[in-house]
Design brief:
Elements: E1 3-9, E2 23-28, E3 31-35, H1 41-47, E4 55-59, H2 70-80, E5 87-90, H3 95-106, E6 113-116, E7 123-126, E8 130-136, E9 144-150, E10 156-157, H4 159-165, H5 169-176, E11 181-182, E12 188-189, H6 191-194, E13 195-196, E14 203-207, H7 214-219, E15 225-229, H8 237-243, H9 248-258, E16 262-266, H10 276-285, E17 289-291, E18 297-299
The chain binds zinc ion (2 copies).
Length: 306
C-alpha cells in the first residue's frame, strides 16, 4: 500500500552537477506515474533502482525543454528494451504533433503512444483506486498541474465481528459500504459496532512552472503533499512575475491557503548559491516545507480518516 514520490530532477532551466531538470516518479501501490521528463531521467531511474519498464503513464506539464527533453531518450530506450505495451502520454495539445515529427527521424517505436490532452478541472486519468485531475497554470506556454488522489476508501470491518456473528462475504461488502447487519437470531447490529473509520485517501499535487495564482490553493486544498515550483527568491519577485514563475514565499503562500500537510519546493534557479535561502523564505509563511534534492523520497503513510 505504498504512496511514494521520488524526485528525479529538481533544477530549473539548467541542469547542474548535482541536479537534473524536473522529473518526479509517483508510485501508488505499484502503479508508476512519471510526472515531467527532464533530461537525465533514464540515468536517475537506474540510479534509484526504479524500473522504466513499469511506467505506463507519463504526465507532461508543459513543452519547455527542462520538463521534456528526457522523453525522447526514455522512449527510445524502452523500444530497445522490447516494450510492446501501449504508453499513455498526458500533456499539451501540441505534444502529439511534436512527437510525431521527432519520430519521423528517430522512430518508429515498437509500441503505441496514446495521447491525452488535459482540461482544467477535469479528470484526465481514472482507474478503480486512483484519479488524476488536471488544472491550468499560468506560464509562458500552455501548462498543467496534476493532482493525484486515491479514491475514497470503504469502511474497515473488524475481523473479530466477522467471526463473532459469522458474517458472510456478501454482507461484508454491504457493511463496508455503511449498512447495518441483522444477525441470524434477528438482532440489529449497528454499522458503527462492526467497522472502523476507513484509511484516508492519500493525495499529491504537482504544480509545475507557474506565476502565483491564488486559485491554485482552492484546487489543491487539503492535499497531503504539495510540490510547488519556487524558481526565485523574494528579491527577484519582479523577475518571477515577468517570467511567469513563483518565488519560494509565494509557493508557501499557496500551501498555507490550501492548508496542505507538507510543501515541497524545487525548480531552483541556478543564480542562487544555496537552497537554504529558499527554505528560509518559505518557512516564514509555511513551516512544514522541504526543499527537494534529486533522489529524495517522500512517503505518505496510511492513517485513519478523522
Ligand atoms: Zn521549468
Ligand atoms: Zn517552463
Amino acid at each position: 500500500m505504498s504512496f511514494e514520490l521520488t524526485i528525479l530532477g529538481s533544477s530549473s532551466a539548467l541542469p547542474t552537477s548535482k541536479r537534473f531538470t524536473t522529473a518526479h516518479l509517483l508510485n501508488i501501490n505499484e502503479r508508476f506515474f512519471l510526472i515531467d521528463c527532464g533530461e537525465g531521467v533514464q540515468i536517475q531511474l537506474r540510479k534509484y533502482h526504479l524500473s522504466p519498464a513499469k511506467i505506463n503513464h507519463i504526465f507532461i506539464s508543459h513543452m519547455h525543454g527542462d520538463h521534456l527533453f528526457g522523453l525522447f531518450g526514455l522512449l527510445s530506450s524502452l523500444g530497445m528494451m522490447g516494450r510492446k505495451a501501449d504508453l499513455n502520454i498526458y500533456g499539451p495539445e501540441k505534444m502529439e504533433e511534436m512527437m510525431s515529427s521527432h519520430l519521423n527521424y528517430f522512430g518508429p517505436l515498437p509500441f503505441s503512444l496514446i495521447y491525452h490532452v488535459p482540461e482544467h478541472g477535469k479528470l484526465i486519468y481514472e482507474d478503480s483506486k486512483i484519479e488524476v485531475e488536471a488544472i491550468d497554470l499560468l506560464h509562458r506556454t500552455q501548462t498543467f498541474g496534476y493532482i493525484f488522489r486515491e479514491k475514497k476508501k470503504l469502511l474497515n470491518i473488524k475481523k473479530s465481528k466477522i467471526e463473532k456473528y459469522g458474517i458472510g462475504v456478501e454482507d461484508v461488502v454491504k457493511i463496508k459500504k455503511g449498512d447495518d447487519y441483522v444477525s441470524d437470531d434477528g438482532k440489529l447490529i449497528s454499522n458503527s459496532e462492526l467497522t472502523m473509520k476507513p484509511w484516508h485517501s492519500r493525495s499529491y499535487a504537482f504544480i509545475s512552472d507557474s506565476a502565483f495564482r491564488a486559485s491554485i490553493a482552492d484546487k489543491v486544498r487539503g492535499v497531503d503533499l504539495l510540490y510547488h515550483e519556487a524558481t526565485f527568491l523574494e528579491k527577484d519577485r519582479k523577475l518571477a512575475k515577468q517570467t511567469l514563475h513563483s518565488t519560494a514565499k509565494q509557493a508557501a503562500e499557496i500551501a498555507k491557503r490550501a492548508a496542505v500537510d507538507k510543501l515541497l519546493i524545487g525548480h531552483f534557479s541556478t543564480r542562487y548559491k544555496s537552497d537554504q535561502l529558499f527554505m528560509d523564505e518559505a518557512m516564514e509563511v509555511f513551516e512544514n516545507t522541504v526543499s527537494v534534492s534529486d533522489g529524495d523520497q517522500f512517503s505518505i503513510p496510511l492513517k485513519r480518516e478523522d
